[in-house]
Amino acid sequence: MTGHPALSTLLETAQPADNQLGPLREDIAEAWRLTHASEFSALTAVLVPLLGNLEHAARVRRGRHRSEAAGLLTSAYQAVSAAFARQDEADASWLGADRASRWAEDAGDPLAVVAAAFRMGHAFITLRRLDQAEHVADQVISALQPLTSAENCPPEVLSLYGAMHLILAVVFAREGDRAGTRRTIAKARKIATRLGTDRNDFNTEFGPTNVELHAVATAVDLGDTGEAIDLSQTIDATGLSAERQSRLAIDLARAHVQRRHIGDAVAALLEAERQAPEQVQTHVLARETVRDLLSLAGRRATPELLDLARRIGAAN
After folding, report:
1. What does the pLDDT look like over 107-138, one tens digit per residue?
2. pTM (predicted TM-score)
3. What's the number of CA atoms in the CB half-sphere (13 Å) around residue 290?
4. Which of 77, 112, 172, 273 is 20 to 30 A from 28, alpha carbon to alpha carbon?
């Protein structure tokens, strides 16, 4: 992500490359699989050559073939943005989202531009620039609203519309706005009900189940831990990605910490680690939760907790 992504191509000093898009499309599918699994080390190995090859292909191709390459490139940069946001590398996530938006326009895909805005919203949340995340979400929701009023609104539009409401709910929760959070989660539930099933349009994983995962996360942010714990028991997230399942477990652990339920919190974190080890090792909320547990437990910290703290670099 550092520097210009295709300077040698512009200077015409790049070595000729095999620019068949079929293998690149397969690499993007693998990149998203790894992103949803929070397997960041393996993802890096895929993305480094993939981005270079796609940046070259998007510049040397013409007409329809260039648009196709641009569409693949925006998807790759969205995977970059999503992965960096989960590792608390917000600046890189913002850059990935911005590049995704630029190439989505070249691809002639306005919904991919919206999806890039979704990634940017997450980057702003990670940066703790909640006002900017709210602005992005409001802007997209306003733009999509006329399309969603149609009875035959495409499900891809509904997915993006609902996903932006979830960003807004997180913003409100982080700001301590309980009424705004509940109102926005309720709107997201209505959109998900209209959609009818869990989907993964533009890799947002929007649907009824993901809305409930956000209801848990925002309840924890607001300090409504009893509600979060009760709601988590009603959710079957096995149809979602390992990242989403792991994040639910992290949020459940956060709720148990607020209630000083040390054993339950450790069990939830171990489940999160089982689902997506690298996510627990890199996610700021997981590390903060482990540090809180160490503080609560003091000398009574169990070997399981101490081992977990060492594995994720949160030991005192």
Report:
1. 999 999 999 999 999 999 999 999 999 999 99
2. 0.92
3. 25
4. 273
